[in-house]
């Protein structure tokens, strides 16, 4: 599978498994799972044939690890990012002291006023490192990185969960637990944190 088809297939699977399984006539169970055989058959019926080997390749090489197989390999789901109601079955875990959220510069003022909310998704997505947050923020224009006082928020009883691909999930982050994380001119190396 060439790179162009790999990216296109990954985006299509994300749309189906996160947002619109009905688009190809499938249903996800309460945990977001669908049988691999059901998914492949539905794709073929809609003119998007994909072999199990090709699906394995998409799952294994996706740099964001968007998809996960069940332990026996018979089912597949998106690791997180759903806009449809699913229960990923993730248990609450203690977060690291600080987490990060990448966004576009144009959104920072509103976020600092209102906090982080899941918007159309089920959860707010946070990363454990600045580099990932910069990449996420770059999808929204000029990146900005917000520092989340995860330890302080957890101390108030707020729950955090960690998805299979390492994304930290929580329902909201109030403004009091947010600060801007300074970036160098090149947008990668931190230069300061403000509290």
Give an overview in words.
The chain folds into two domains: 76 residues, RNA 2'-phosphotransferase, Tpt1/KptA family, N-terminal domain (Arc Repressor Mutant, subunit A, Orthogonal Bundle), CATH 1.10.10; 96 residues, ADP-ribosylation fold. It contains six helices and ten strands. It is globular and about 50 Å long.
Main attributes?
195 residues; alpha+beta; Arc Repressor Mutant, subunit A; ADP-ribosylation fold; 2 domains; four-stranded antiparallel β-sheet; three-stranded antiparallel β-sheet; globular; disordered C terminus
Shape: globular
User: Which quaternary structure do these chains form?
Assistant: single chain
Number of strands: 10
Structural class: alpha+beta
Give the C-level CATH assignment of the largest domain.
Answer: Alpha Beta
**Largest pleated sheet:** 4 strands, antiparallel
Order of strands across the main sheet: 4-6-9-10
First-to-last CA distance: 47 Å
The number of helices is 6
- Percent range for β-strand residues: 15-25%
Mean pLDDT: 89
Instruction: Estimate the helix proportion, in percent.
Output: 25-40%
pLDDT < 50 stretches: 184-195
Radius of gyration: 18 Å
The string of secondary-structure elements, in order, is: HEHHEEEHEHEHEEEE
CATH topology of the largest domain: ADP-ribosylation fold
Number of domains: 2
Please identify, by name, the CATH architecture of the largest domain: Alpha-Beta Barrel
């Amino acid at each position: 599978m060439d790179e162009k088809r790999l990216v296109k297939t990954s985006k299509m699977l994300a749309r189906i498994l996160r947002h619109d399984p009905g688009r190809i006539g499938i249903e996800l169970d309460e945990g977001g799972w669908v049988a691999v055989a059901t998914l492949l058959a539905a794709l073929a019926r809609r003119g998007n044939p994909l072999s199990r080997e090709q699906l394995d390749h998409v799952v294994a090489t996706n740099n964001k690890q968007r998809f996960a197989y069940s332990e026996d390999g018979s089912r597949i789901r998106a690791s997180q990012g759903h806009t449809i109601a699913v229960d990923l079955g993730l248990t609450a875990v203690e977060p690291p002291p600080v987490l990060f959220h990448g966004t576009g510069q144009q959104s920072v003022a509103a976020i600092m006023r209102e906090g982080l909310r899941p918007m159309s998704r089920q959860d707010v997505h946070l990363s454990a490192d600045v580099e990932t947050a910069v990449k996420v923020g770059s999808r929204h224009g000029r990146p900005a990185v917000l520092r989340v006082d995860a330890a302080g928020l957890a101390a108030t009883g707020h729950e955090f969960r960690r998805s299979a691909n390492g994304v930290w999930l929580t329902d909201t982050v109030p403004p009091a637990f947010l600060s801007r994380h300074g970036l160098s001119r090149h947008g990668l190396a931190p230069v300061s944190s403000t509290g």
